[in-house]
User: Fold this.
Amino acid sequence: MKKGKETAFFCKECGYETSKWLGQCPGCKEWNTLVEEPVVKREKGRMIPVGDVPKPTPLKDITVDDEERLSTGFSELDRVLGGGIVAGSLVLIGGDPGIGKSTILLQMCKNLSDCQKNILYISGEESLKQIKLRADRIGSFGGTIQLLCETNLDHIEENLRQINPDVAVIDSIQTIYREDVASAPGSVSQVRESTSILMQLAKNLGISIFIVGHVTKEGVVAGPRVLEHMVDTVLYFEGDRYASYRILRGVKNRFGSTNEIGVFEMADTGLRQVENPSEYMLNGRPENTSGSIVTCSVEGTRPMLVEIQALACKTNFGMPRRTAAGTDYNRVNLLIAVLEKRLGMHFGEYDVYINMAGGIRLNEPALDLGIIMALISSYRDLPIDENMVAFGEVGLSGEVRAVNMARRRVSEAKKLGFKVCVLPKVSADSMKDIDGIKLIGISNIRQISNLS
Ligand code: TYD
Ligand code: MG
Assistant:
């Protein structure tokens, strides 16, 4: 940086600002994420004249018309958005590069343009030809969608004002820059300033704007977390790049509940929504092998069956290994300790690997019982009945505690043809009326060995 210019250090993960460089960001505790950037100076003397000061409105005088939501054409995406697109909202879609953010937004634009909505798709990353090539893979587009390759925010603003589309897409925010901000595109201050302008535009013009934010690990590009507090809705697109399914997760939503997920599958004609993820997740489940059990997890309001796999095998070193793929590592260690103490199992001589089949990430306490049973099954090398589902939270003394939405979990298991469900005793007692699936309520993990 040139001398004489005022600079500060910004964390490119969370946007934390400090005057000197630090190895670890005090805000998000990430290492080596602080980068030096010029400080954005506000123009002096631009005070609002007193006559223009807005007056507060009494809450009871504010009327809300039945707010109309625009359907994206994907029920999975609509659900994550809280029921569709809200006019004038700013939505951030984050995710690793190549996960399918541009694809899903282009597909959404196609669905919207099929309903005669005006769309402006602004790309700062790809040329018109590249977008056209992707569009050709997805299908044939209507006439109401316009493309613009632009990175200058002033030009984008001008276009938004003139065209006044129903929905606009900005791909990606890290390529957009404002001329009056001194730092490079993608820096924390550029990304923030551009987003705040887009927020104002969305609110003033009533345009719903979707912005793409790449999650970056290296380089000096600011990540989407820097913007989370500024936008209305934050969605993250996650999934294994090597597996074909993708999960869209709501992290923040001013217009609906968070923690809803949408499940998609990447095909050669774009993304396809998976309406029955349980079936999808259980595909290819091994038969009659130890260490495998199906559990039912609830994401938002929707139950999903997933297979938990455990492998406990004799360790060759003094230090046993533990890995947890797709779930919380510390939680797995805790459950192993509970098994050691309460059931007298000797995991000290075993390496333990836990895996959520299908590459999905879940972190719910309700998975505990499944993990425990998979561990016991692998340790004893006894397969679990493949028609069995188990869920419940396990406490430190080995007690099995109730979890929320137990009834919904049981119905999902029943729907997919499971015959037995192991669950917390309190939940089982409250569901005596359910038939077609045998409920086994347990109150302590000691009772697991009595199960046949
Ligand atoms: P893209 O939407 O460009 O990712 P992002 O915008 O998040 O960086 O998606 C890129 C990947 O998706 C790419 O690896 C190719 C794959 N893909 C398909 O498999 N099928 C398709 O129909 C399309 C359009 C992309
Ligand atoms: Mg892209």
Notes: The mean pLDDT is 88.
